[in-house]
Structure formats: C-alpha cells, structure tokens
Amino acid sequence: MTTVEDRSLPAVAVLGAGSMGGAILQGLVVSGLPTGGITATNRTRAKADALAGLAGVTSVALEEQPSGNTDAAGSAGIILVGVKPAMVPDLLSEIRPALRPGAVVVSLAAGVTIATFESVLGEGARVLRSMPNTPAVVGKAVTGLAAGAGADADDVAMVTRLFETVGAVLQVPEEQIDPLSTISGSGPAYVFLLVEALASAAVGKGFTPEQARLMAEQTFIGASALLDASGEEAAELRRRVTSPKGTTERAVAVLQGAHLDALFAEATDAALARARELAAGA
Length: 282
Hints:
single chain, alpha/beta, Rossmann fold, ProC C-terminal domain-like fold, 8-stranded mixed sheet, 13 helices, 8 strands, 52% helix, elongated, disordered N terminus
C-alpha cells in the first residue's frame, strides 16, 4: 500500500520561477503533496512578492540576496531550472559546488539538452529534461519527461510525482522531447487558432463578436470536457455527432477535403525544424 511518506518529495528549489516555473510551483502547493520545503527564486522583489503568499514557499529576490540560487539549490533534493535557455550554463556553474549528493536537477528550459546539463554538472549528475505546456497554469498540463544516464528509476518516479500535480506526464527518450513539443508544447496555440477561426465564421454569419466568442469558446471547452469525461476516442465521439446525411457530415467533409491531417503534419514538421535550429544555436 502506498503511504503519504512514499509519495512525499524532498525539498524543492525552483530557480527562475517565471510563468512556467511559477505554474508548477503553484500546482505543487495546491496539491498538498508533502515536501521538505519549497524555495523559489526570481531576479526582482516584485516577481518574488507575487509568490510570497503561497503556503510553505520561501520566495527569494536575487537583487536582494545574490546567493539565493546557490542557497536554494544547496538545500534541495529537486532543483527545477526555469531560467531562460541562454542563462542555463552560467546558472549551472554557479550552483554546481553547492549541490547535495544525489540531488536531481530538472530542466524546464526549451532546447537545452541533457548533455549540456551533464557537461557543466559533471559525470554522474542526476538530470531530467522536461517539456510542460501552458495549461499547467490550470492543472491540465501535458509534460514530457526524459531522463539522463545518471538518473535512476526512483529519480524519474519522484519527478513524475511532482509534475503530476499540474497534469499528465509522458515519459519519453530525449530524442522525442522536441517532437513532443510540436504537439503538446505548441498544441494550445493550435487550439486557440481554431477557436479564433470558428468565432470568425460565426461573425460572418451575423453574430456579434461577443456571441461568436461565447459559442466558439464554450463549444471547445464543452467538447474537451466531454472527451475527458467519456473516456472515448475522439474519432468515436466525432462519429456520434456526425449523423448520416446531416449538416455536420457535410461540414466535416469540407474539413477533411482540406486535408487537415496533412496540414497538421506539415505544421508540426515546421515547428520541429525550428526546434532543431534553436538547439543548434540558429
């Protein structure tokens, strides 16, 4: 039987608790999952103050406490690195001397490889690379998680528990992190674009922008909730809505005729190409 102690986490440090790091931090707090303490760092007092009211969180402003990253990392068992990708090597060099034996370092930085982390932290470093998406803010993220050679099964299970506080977790080899980012990472933008397009079509049919937004947004929200609650495949739910020789069938035929599957393949291929350019420093 799994006990509370089995699921608890060691002390957690979030270095660079910006939008994504802050979302994960808040999800962890709201979940009530026991930890050995949580410390978050940000460059300015204003950003630190935004997290200072969270229960059990020590929020540090680096402009006032320059050693904040090192202090936080040195007292943590899990260190989330949420600074901008270009800042990662310098941050890792800064915290390396302070890391505890067995500390697990988790990247939130898009495009920064495990090899980059290991090259700075040294051989045997326990490193995982993550790719959460923006619905983490509302606890509905999909997070891709890839482990470096130094991370064992217990490390992966522990970090998985952390990210499950903000949604679902998918464990993948690192070579699939960039392809995953083109689906779940960029995916919210695709959905928002479809909502925009449907709302625009509604305006074209004489509805006000407010009415169009309500219809488009609530249709996507409702359909997503139905998909989640039913446990059915999307294709099956689509078939149930699409009555033979009905209006929806006619509309879906137009969309399928536009080869949406090929269009999404092309779009995600373009995103993947750009991810590889960024990883190469282009």
